[in-house]
Amino acid sequence: MQRHFSESKKKKQLEICVGSSGSERCHLHEDQASGHPRQTSRREDRCIAQVAPSLEAPVFTRNIRRRLAEGHLGSWRALRVLPLTPTHRGRRLEWCRARRNWTAVEWNQVVFSESRFNLSSDDNRVHV
Predict the structure, then answer these.
(1) For labelling, which of 63, 72, 96, 107 has a CA lying 20 to 30 Å from the CA of 87?
(2) What's the predicted TM-score (pTM) here?
(3) What is the 3-state secondary structure (H, E, C) of 61-83?
(4) Other C-beta atoms within 10 Å of 51: how many?
């Protein structure tokens, strides 16, 4: 598999080769990447993460985001409610169809509340 390099990368590498002693061969390698080269290994990054809180050294968010992305780590929000299953959807639809033709008098007998309450048992919801 042949790798294609941009013209600017080829030119830059040629300038480096011409400026060198000439005794060494100059090649473009696939592992040469654009941007600033890594200064630490992944193992060193893990050690830094363990020690950094005790050092009071500045930590840059861009570096943290980059390291998390390299480890395929990301953030997410916890679900507020569980997604509805097809069974739940079916039961809700049945409930609505059963009350489709209710009159205002029948609806006045229903208690509506914005508060959350549970008739059966405590569902171990954490209160903060």
Answers:
(1) 107
(2) 0.31
(3) HHHHHHHHHHCCCCCCCCCCCCC
(4) 10
Q: How far is CA 27 from CA 4, 11, 17, 62, 126, in A?
A: 13, 12, 9, 32, 61
User: Is there a contact between 16 and 26 (Cβ–Cβ < 8 Å)?
Assistant: yes
Residue 67 tokens read as 């390291």
Reference 5, options 35, 30, 25, 26; nearest CA is: 30
State the Cα angle at 82 between 81 and 84, rounded to 5°.
115
Give yes or no for a contact between 45 and 67, defined as CB atoms under 8 angstroms apart. Answer: yes
pLDDT higher than threshold 70 for residue 65 = yes
Q: What is the pLDDT of residue 101?
A: 95
Backbone angles phi, psi at 51, to 5 degrees: -90, -30
Burial of 67 (0-12, 13-18, 19+ CB in 10 A): middle
DSSP state of 54: G
Comparing C-alpha atoms, which of 6, 13, 15 is closest to residue 27? 13
pLDDT one-digit tens code per residue, 90-103: 999 999 999 999 99
10's tokens = 């080829």
